[in-house]
Amino acid sequence: MADTAVDVQHAEHHGHADHHHGPQGLLKYVWSTDHKIIAMQYLFTGMFMAVIGGYMAYVFRMQLAFPGISVPGFGQVSPGEYNSLVTNHGSIMIFWVAMPVLIAAFGNYLIPLMIGADDMVFPRINRLSYQIFLVSAILLLASMFVQGGGFGGAWTAYPPLSAVAEYNQTALGSSMWLVAVALEFVAFLLGGINFITTLMNSRAPGMKAYDIPIVCWMIVIASILFMLSVGPLIAGAVMLLFDQVLGTGFYDPARGGDPILWQHLFWFFGHPEVYVVLLPAIGMTIDVIATFSRKKIFGYKLVLYTTVATGVLSFFVWAHHQFIAGIDPRMANVFTITTLLISVPIAEMCFVIIATLYGGSIRLTTPMLWALAFVAEFLIGGVTGIFLGASGADIYFHDTYFVLAHFHYTFFPIAIIGSFIGFTYWFPKMFGRMMNDTLGKIHFWGTVIPFNFIFIPLFVLGIGGQHRRIYNYQHFPELAGPEMYQLRVIATISLLVMLSFQLVFFYNCITSWISGEKAGKNPWKANTLEWTTESPPPHGNWPADDMPNVYRGAYEYGHPDREEDYWPQNQPS
Amino acid sequence: MSDHQDHHDGHQVNYKKIYFILLGLLVVSVAGPFLEILWVTLLTAFGIAIVKARLVINNFMHLKWEKRLVKWVLTTSLLLMGLMFAGVAPDVMNHEGNNWENLAAQAAVARGVAGEHEEEEAEDVVEVVVGFSAQSTFTVVCGACHGAAGDGTGAAAAALNPRPASFIDPVFWETRDRDRILTVIRDGAAAVGGSPLMVPWRASYDDEQIQALTDYVMSLRPNE
Amino acid sequence: MANAKPLATLRSATGIPTGRLAVWWVLASEVVIFGGLLGAYLMHRLGHPEWAEAAAHTNTWVGAFNTFVLLSSSFTAVLAHQAAEKGNGKEAAKLLGFTILGALTFLIVKSGEWTYEIMHGYTITANNFWSFYYTAAGLHALHVIAGAIIMGFVAVDAYRGRELHRVELIGIYWHFVDVVWIFLFPLLYIAK
Question: Does residue A11 register a pLDDT over 70?
């Protein structure tokens, strides 16, 4: 440890002298290497993409509930457009909303602040990561407007539909989609290396492994999962691109290739990816619940170990997406067992959350409401996953709306509720002002209640046999009965209600940003290091001669020997 | 922990020696195939590749002196590739499909055919085998164009020219009789001078089934 | 340019300098990229004995020469690291220059080899063996090109006595590129 101290001295003498010279003016915001600015860039880009993804959902839900109508704000939806909307809705919500907001935005913002560092370890790589991400987002949006329209082969892009232009009819759109996804992977590989090395190397003096706030651990473990799982898919994407552009036959069985190979490569990444976005969301939930229960987390190490267990297990479950793809039934056996096993660590985390709540002095602020909703809604998603994880039941449920409702019950809590947990909790730190709590609660109920009214009918429809990827159910007499249409209309109207309540959120954001109550350093009376600096934090986060030291874990709430019920990590005892 | 910055200076590797060993191994791996013995070729190719890689990784990349953490990370990534291979290869290397035989079902059928003792199970199996019904075939197959109700408004109808016939239209029946319906189903509408879009079905259904379908179409005829 | 490093970069809680730690993580992610591609190739190759016929047309001598070139360039890269550790930036830059020269030789030989093969009809679409051959070797060649470019920047810096620790980092990456080739060579050239 001796030389670490030397390093610090070294930095303070020569590093900080010209550390504050950066680009000036507007360029400060687009060309900055400051981790907080880059986090904001990711956050706002992610929010913008979420609006687009929501708009797509609105268009195709209208088509499903009222087939053939001219959708206000879009016009009539053709089958090709429908496919492209569904595909890009999925791609955007996972790769351009959940990933940038949960991992990149909150990772960039929180990791240096929570571990007491002045920035990421590689600020310029960090900036490059965002710029590549931005290019990928623009490329994806552009792919919707090229000749032939956007790619419509679902976000999983199974060949031969994705590989052969005669089948998908979108020669240019599908290649652009693929390149955009690959660029996005590159952006997150660069970002992930930054998160991992920052957490490993740049912790404040005195901060040991078990003093790190859970959310930092979760983001870093998610980045590790991402880095170790995405490689085969990058190789597979190169092969798919060659199939599309050069006419090779990697996925063409007639020429000795194998389409199942893509499915395996995709899901070898695709399943860990679910946990890549889940872990940060669950980390924020745990942090928020500890703060607003004014209690230490019940089992910090347990959470950490179960997170690692989840990460390891997540590599062993991928083929449960392929139970009816013709894979070896003996493998289906193995993957059923591992899939059911992975619910154990996740259930453990839910129990930890409940045990943390037990006996706490709970404060139902807006972020706390979101965190509780996360647990409740994610539980439904998890429990319905049991049906699908069992290979026998999955033969019936596969590719029905039951699957769709299941993963929306997991991804909505992760991507949307998770983002709102983080956004409402750290808004005072990010912008220096409190959000309006009443408006926040209106927005909360206006989002969570309609959400259930969207997807519970879809569960019912799925059990009723409603297949996915169908443009107009009128063509299928047994799926076109009035009772099925009533459920579809309920879902669509609930979506409209939910989307309209998001206006409250944007209104609240803007007014609170301009004229909200001043937040001060630590409005929630929380322990972690980001609350010990100004809101919003200055460049460098803390004065160069007053970087924080850490003396204890992040969750010392309600310590019996103290008058205050919290005990910031940087206060000497 | 405090000596980590210096640990690189602490070890002295004779890089030249390692380099010449690597070149020697390269010669062996090229020479191996000349013996034209398969296992020797494989051994000199891949065995030596592993030895060479180890030499480079340990001595040139200095992994030997690196913290254990790094070795763990790299080993994990290699193990994951092993996992990927183990999970994917059984499917990708299986070019002929699994061709599983459902022995349980076969046994049940055999019992049913042989059988006095287990008639109940036998009945279930027989149910599945007998499947043709004129009505359901019409709904699923003919209905795609003619509509499930035979009114000429199936899913594909809009795209077809001429439009598919409506069997509930009295005008249609003014010029049709049972023989003509039967011929059109069996040999296609082109056989009687109609549109080739109504294709012949004799390859898909036997005479008895076509008779049943004809009866079903006749039953749609509205009564005056 | 805000070239001054933040305090975060200079801390080292693990005991491994930040730059080197990051390079190891980059390599871990590279291992899974090449692992995915070569794993896919291997399972196809094992499942298609008839690919041996296509593989017989690859030129072992060219592959062996390129292996020799890469091994030698790795050798100069590690010598450059040794020089940099002694603080001799000029010597390190010179040795890195030799490594870049090795990279260029490798690429020139490779392009000649590919030209010959393509002219004889063995294009990327000829059959799936050739598809894998060009994809795997092409991905590797991209790493060679990227490494050579980065090494150019590092060598210029080292010549002026700046950022000498980067000589080691680019060296580790370069050895990895070498190791990938050590496995590509038997997979594509020897095992027929």
Answer: no
pLDDT for the residue A9: 37
Q: Which of A7, A18, A231 sits opposite C4 (nearest CB)?
A: A18
Q: What is the pLDDT of residues B31-44, one digit of tens each?
A: 888 888 888 888 88
Interface test with A, best of B2, B84, B141 (most A CBs within 10 A): B84
Nearest to A232 among B84, B97, B98 (CB): B84
Q: Which of B81, A28, B32, B82 is nearest to C32 (CA)?
A: B81
Yes or no: say if A173 and A244 are a contact pair by the CB < 8 Å rule. Answer: no
DSSP string computed for A57-110: HHHHHHHHHSTT-EETTTEEPPHHHHHHHHHHHHHIIIIIIIIIIIIIIHHHHH
Q: Counting runs of H as helices and runs of E as strands, what totals does chain A give?
A: 19, 2
Q: Domain range for residue B200? A: 134-219
Q: Taking Cα atoms as reference points, which of A17, A536, A105 lies closest to residue C2?
A: A17
Which neighbouring-strand residues pair with A467? A400
Does residue A296 lie within any of the structural domains?
A: yes
Tokens read off for C65? 């020469």
- What are the chain B neighbours of C17 within 8 Å (beta carbons)? 5
CATH label of the domain that carries residue A313: 1.20.210.10
The residue-averaged pLDDT of A192-200 equals 95
Predicted ipTM? 0.94
Do B143 and B200 share a domain, yes or no? yes
Q: How many domains does chain A have?
A: 1
Distance (Å, rounded) from C-alpha A248 to C-alpha C44? 15
Q: Is the peptide bond before A538 cis (omega within 30 degrees of 0)?
A: no
pLDDT of amino acid B111: 79
Please give the pLDDT value at position C3. Answer: 52
Q: For residues A222 and A280, is the Cβ–Cβ distance under 8 A?
A: yes
pLDDT tens per residue, range C126-162: 889 999 999 999 999 999 999 999 999 999 999 998 8
Q: Judge: B29–C190 Cβ closer than 8 Å, yes or no.
A: yes
Domains and CATH numbers, chain C: 19-190 (1.20.120.80)
Q: How far apart are CA A501 and CA A158, in angstroms?
A: 36
3-state secondary structure C63-96: HHHHHHHHHHHHHHHHHHHHHHHCCCHHHHHHHH
Residue A484 Cα, gap to closest chain C Cα (Å):
44
Q: In this predicted structure, what is the pLDDT of residue B123?
A: 44
- B150 falls within a domain: yes
Angle at C88 between CA C85 and CA C90, to 5 degrees: 135
Give the pair of three-digit tokens for residue A116.
Answer: 């007491």
Residues of B in contact with A329 (CB under 8 A): 98, 100
Q: What's the number of domains chain B is made of?
A: 3
**Rounded (5°) CA angle A54-A60-A62:** 100
A41-53 residues labelled b (16+ CB within 10 A) or e (exposed): bbbebbbebbebb
The pTM of the full predicted model, rounded to 2 decimals, is 0.84
**B146 domain residue, yes or no:** yes
Listed in sequence order, the residues at least 6 apart from B95 whose beta carbon sits closer than 8 Å to its beta carbon are C47
Residues of chain B with pLDDT under 50: 1-10, 118-130
